């Protein structure tokens, strides 16, 4: 997928997340679960493309990040802050299905996922990536 397509998808997810926060995260946990997971992977792909580490035709799926071990096996090359990035994406993914398909979660769990997501977003932005 082209970087421009990733950026359009990221922009859409960020908009949904802003709207979900404004309306109340306890009322939008599914949107938060889906969009933090999707957007985290999209941002990661943009990062890997910019680093020249991922072919434009390559596509990473969210379930690759079900575990750090699985992600490390698939992504068997080095890049800056690899451990931190994979940990954050895997932490988001670990909560994804519970938020998307499970019963209502405590606000603290939803905030935890948003915290992981914001930390990841800020890390990528500190590397010069821009989403809007």
Using brief descriptors, characterize the structure shown.
68% helix, mainly alpha
Characterization of this structure:
The protein is mainly alpha-helical and 132 residues long. Helices cover 68% and strands 0% of the residues. The protein is built from five helices and no strands. It has helices spanning 3-23, 29-50, 68-74, 82-101, 107-126. Helix 1 (3-23) packs antiparallel against helix 2 (29-50), helix 2 packs antiparallel against helix 4 (82-101) and helix 4 (82-101) packs antiparallel against helix 5.
List the helices and strands and how they pair.
Layout: H1 3-23, H2 29-50, H3 68-74, H4 82-101, H5 107-126
Helix pairs in contact: 1-2, 2-4, 2-5, 4-5
Brief overview:
The chain is 68% helix and 0% strand.
Largest sheet: none
User: In which range does the helix fraction lie?
Assistant: 55-70%
Order of helices and strands: HHHHH
Backbone shape: globular
Structural class: mainly alpha
DSSP helix count? 5
The value of Rg in angstroms is: 14 Å
* Mean of all residue-level pLDDT scores: 95
| Subunit arrangement of the protein | single chain
Q: Residue ranges: pLDDT <50 for 5 or more in a row?
A: none
Beta-strand level of the residues, as a percent range? Answer: under 5%
Give the N-terminus to C-terminus distance in angstroms. 18 Å
Compute the number of strand runs: 0
